[in-house]
Amino acid sequence: MNEKERSLHHTTLGDAIDKLMKAYRLDGKLKEIEVLNKWEEMMGRAVFLRTKNIYIKNRILHLQLDSSVMRDELFHGKTVIIQRVNETAGFEMITDIWFG
User: Fold this and answer.
1) Average pLDDT for residues 57-78, to the nearest whole number?
2) What is the DSSP string of 27-59?
3) Rounded to the nearest 5°, which phi and psi values hold at 58?
4) How far apart are alpha carbons 87 and 95 in whole angstroms?
């Protein structure tokens, strides 16, 4: 293979990783982890400290909080939380929130 042919088949490492992530359907999970790691930034320190468990399953954000008062407040602000999460993700990642 000569130099010209090799450059036609050249793939960057980043492109190869993206293709691999998509092939194994891991790109969505990676984005979920990225967004959940920004929970404190999105919601503030007080909410972050009261959050005991957080994950996304079937486009639903599952939140477990150690404060019933905060759970009530966040329940009433559900649409704002959904909007913040989706804006951080850059696409509609979640459609609902379940409070546990």
Assistant:
1) 96
2) HHHHHHHHHHTTHHHHH-HHHHHHEEEEEEETT
3) 55, 45
4) 12
26-99 under CATH 3.30.300, yes or no: yes
Backbone angles phi, psi at 57, to 5 degrees: -145, 130
Q: What is the domain partition of the chain in residue ranges?
A: 26-99
Under 8 Å between Cβ of 89 and 95: no
Cα–Cα–Cα angle for 20, 24, 31, nearest 5°?
85
Average pLDDT, stretch 16-22?
A: 77
Check if the beta carbon of residue 67 is closer than 8 Å to that of residue 50: yes
**How many percent of the chain have pLDDT more than 90?**
68
Structure tokens given for 59: 């486009």
Q: For residue 29, give the amino acid letter.
A: K
What is the pTM assigned to this prediction? 0.76
